[in-house]
Amino acid sequence: MVWLIVLALLLPAGNVKAAAFNSCVNCHGQCRAADTAGHECSWCHFGSAATSRRDLAHRNLVPPSCADFRSESSQSVHSGAHLAELLACRRCHVVGGAGNRLAQNLDGAVRTLDVAQMRQALRQPAQQMPRFNLPAHDVDSLVSYLLHGAYASVAGSEQPPLVVHFTADNAVAQLPFERHCGGCHQVLSAQYGGLGTGRNGPNLSGLFSRFYPANAERHWNAELLQRWLRNPRQLRPVAIMPPLQLNDDEFAGLLQTFRVADDCHTPPAR
What we know:
- This protein is an all-alpha fold.
- It folds into 2 domains: 40-158, Orthogonal Bundle (Cytochrome Bc1 Complex, Chain D, domain 2), CATH 1.10.760; 170-258, Immunoglobulin-like (Sandwich).
- It contains 12 helices and 2 strands.
- It has helices at 2-10, 24-28, 42-45, 54-57, 75-86, 106-109, 115-123, 136-152, 176-181, 222-230, 232-235, 248-258; strands spanning 187-189, 193-195.
- A two-stranded antiparallel ribbon has the order 1-2.
- A hairpin with a 3-residue loop joins β1 and β2 (193-195).
- α5 (75-86) packs across α8 (136-152).
- The longest helix has 17 residues, at 136-152.
- The protein is elongated, with a radius of gyration of 25 Å.
């Protein structure tokens, strides 16, 4: 016994390592993912591998369908990125360091939510948020991408708290958008909050920003909007929207509704 103690004292300290306790392998076995070498299970799945209590070990657990969110080569992350562009999430949200600040910054919000809560938010969106009706695999792809953006983005400077008004008060009932557009469209505006109740037409939040889907490869601006309102079918022959005649004051008020902050985030340098 004495010689073992002497040998241990003579060995360099760097060669003596205590094996880290990992309760995950008791139920799930060793992870075989190629790009997780050197990381604990919680690197991909969150939870806690340092406890045998199931409720603590599975706290905020990321399921296998979303667990490859840290990988740059993840098919789920790439599919989610495509969906985020297709659905134009950044017209209202900051995702992966880029986007308008009309609604919650998802890079920060995702860090406080578990996957079940994110799934629920996509399946039953908040007021003024479009209804996407995504199948389950697309929901998980989008969750993977949101996690990827939140944990890969470079933290920027602190932003002031964002106050989002999802319902408009009586004072805005006479706004041009409410009177002429709100029956078919909705918009989340920086100045007035949520306007409109219609869902027959597209959600117009962030219309004048570079994050809103382009019309015939052109981004929306005042001149293009004016042409569209005067004769939608001149720009899109299959348009079902009728022409809308506005006076100068009404059109100026509509432009104010679509205005977004000039400090919208851009992707950080890496």
